[in-house]
TrEMBL record:
Coiled coil: none annotated. Signal peptide: none annotated. It holds the Pfam family Lys-AminoMut_A. This is Lysine 5,6-aminomutase subunit alpha. GO terms for molecular function: catalytic activity; cobalamin binding. Residues 10-516 form the D-Lysine 5,6-aminomutase alpha subunit domain.
Length: 532
């Protein structure tokens, strides 16, 4: 992704920033110690997908669900899917796909296949994993080839959404947006899919508020945007949602089908979908390991906090979450330039000097995370249906973005809060952004911030509050902080929410070579870049 020049004229207290990072590191370490001895049904299904298990049974249940449920029902999933699958493959001289089909047909009971000691199979499991990662390696190579050939949009890259519910209609809208100037296209996921503990199969033409995230839909849209990339002469990035109860599975599907970005927040599912916090934090770690390996940029969801909490009073929670998401990402081996940390332009437009506070928040984030692209979200909370005022609000949002050097710009729609945007709404959004960003292109390099001014004082306040919050969370732990409602004014119970039954303690023989291989490669890549 194109790197943005960072104006560092705002005085950001480096000692406070370091305290924030130290606290985030401590928080993440505690969560990591909780994650390490646990797996989930979603992670085990992901291992199956990475092994190449695809398709559905006669009842249209995904084969990975069939196999994982089969092992789990026998009380054996604590050893991991990899062991039972490779053991059967070696015994029957079958592929993982063939074994899965036999399990679905009731012809193989994995618990009754003669076993060897797990230690004796470790090297064989690794060989299966190395071979199975070739499709992801090919996808990475193809992305690099296309970007080298075509180039990509200048930063901030213009990001638009499509959300018809029909993948074929989405293709039309996505290709039209690319022709008009969009650099990034996100296919909004259908309402409620994050709560499904399985991934639907095949191409889909019905969805409410968006389109189902399936591997076939990923394939269809990737092919369409590759065609558009060749036509417009720049690589068009594809985005989907790596969240919910199938978070790591979607990461694996996206890695194979060459998605370029994934909405992948550590806390979003807990706060806004009431998914159990244990399940979410375990799943997000493996999903980020996969995204890191596949060179996918993640987008985090701090902007959502400001839809339920006051954007002025709770701005420090956004910054605190950015630090936490950064640390979780780095611990999974992501590069800083893969961390599209989220924030938003959500101040009440009737607030005096609201624009100054927005500029301060955006500039502060830019300077604190100079190597991360930052995903900047448009005004939504205070859009009223007045399309003329809304268009102006989006103009100020675009001005703030170019002024402060954001990297990923999700364009605001003048019809926000009225209906799912039409194609002409996207065209006007792209036109607005192009106009403002061209006319104010170098403005950020021409100005400095008054040392004792309103913007500086606001930034000092937000940063101090974020440090206080992070150090408080470090004392009580992230799980307790989530129970107490520290983020977005939402409280969630440690043992409540959806998906807790899918959390499983690993036994002493558990082995997931995919995690080991990908994480090692991620950290090797970061060492080569001299990363954190």
């Amino acid at each position: 992704m194109a790197k943005q020049i960072v104006n560092e004229s705002l005085n950001v207290d480096k000692e406070l920033v370091q305290r924030a990072r130290n606290a985030a590191k401590f928080i993440a370490k505690e969560v990591g110690e909780f994650i390490e001895p646990r797996t989930t049904v979603a992670i085990e299904r992901t291992v199956g997908r990475l092994l190449g298990i695809d398709g559905v049974d006669s009842d249209q249940v995904p084969l990975v669900n069939v196999v994982v449920d089969h092992i789990n029902d026998k009380g054996l999933l604590s050893t991991g899917l990899m062991y039972w699958m490779v053991n059967a493959c070696e015994h029957y001289s079958m592929t993982p796909q063939q074994v899965a089909q036999k399990v679905a047909e009731g012809e193989i009971d994995l618990s009754k296949v003669p076993t060897v000691k797990p230690e004796m199979l470790k090297q064989k499991m690794r060989e299966y994993a190395v071979e199975s990662l070739k499709p992801i390696n090919n996808s990475k190579d193809e992305r690099s080839r296309m970007i080298d050939k075509l180039g990509e949009g200048k930063s901030p890259q213009l990001y638009v959404i499509v959300a018809t519910g029909n993948i074929y209609e989405d293709v039309i809208q996505a290709q039209t947006a690319a022709k008009k100037g969009a650099d990034i296209v996100a296919v909004i996921r259908t309402t409620g899919q994050s709560l499904l503990d399985y991934v639907p199969y095949g191409a889909t033409t019905e969805g409410f508020g968006g389109t189902y995230a399936t591997q076939e839909n990923f394939k269809i849209m990737r092919k369409a945007l590759d065609e558009s990339s060749e036509e417009v002469g720049r690589y068009i990035h594809l985005v989907n949602y790596c969240s919910g109860l199938c978070m790591p599975e979607i990461a694996a599907m996206g890695a194979v089908e060459r998605l370029d970005m994934m909405l992948n927040d550590a806390l979003y599912g807990i706060l806004f979908r009431d998914i159990n916090m244990q399940r979410t934090l375990i799943d997000q770690n493996f999903s980020r390991i996969i995204n890191g390996y596949a060179k996918i940029t993640i987008n985090t969801g701090e902007d959502n906090y400001l839809t339920t909490a006051d954007p002025y009073e709770e701005a420090h929670t956004v910054l605190a979450s950015q630090f936490i998401n950064e640390r979780f990402g780095l611990d999974a081996g992501l590069l800083e330039e893969q961390l599209g940390l989220g924030h938003a332009f959500e101040m009440d437009p009737d607030m005096k000097n609201g624009l100054l506070y927005e500029i301060g928040q955006a500039q502060m984030s830019r300077q604190i995370f100079p190597n991360s692209p930052l995903k900047y979200m448009p005004p939504t909370k205070h859009m009223t249906g007045n399309i003329f005022k809304g268009h102006l609000q989006n103009g100020l949002f675009n001005l703030t973005s170019i002024l402060t050097g954001q990297g990923i710009q999700l364009l605001g729609m003048l019809t926000e809060a009225i209906h799912t945007p039409y194609m002409q709404d996207r065209y006007l959004a792209i036109e607005n952004a192009k106009y403002v960003m061209n006319n104010a292109h170098d403005l950020g390099e021409e100005i400095t911030f008054k040392r004792d001014g309103k913007i500086q004082k606001r930034v000092d306040e937000v940063l101090k509050n974020a440090v206080t919050l992070l150090e408080d969370i470090a004392k009580i732990g992230l799980f307790t902080a989530l129970e107490k409602g520290y983020f977005a004014d939402v409280k969630r119970p440690f043992n409540g929410g959806k998906g807790l039954e899918g959390v499983i303690l690993k036994d002493e023989n558990y082995h997931n070579p995919f995690s080991d291989i990908m994480k090692a490669k991620n950290f090797e890549k970061r060492q080569q870049k001299g990363g954190v």
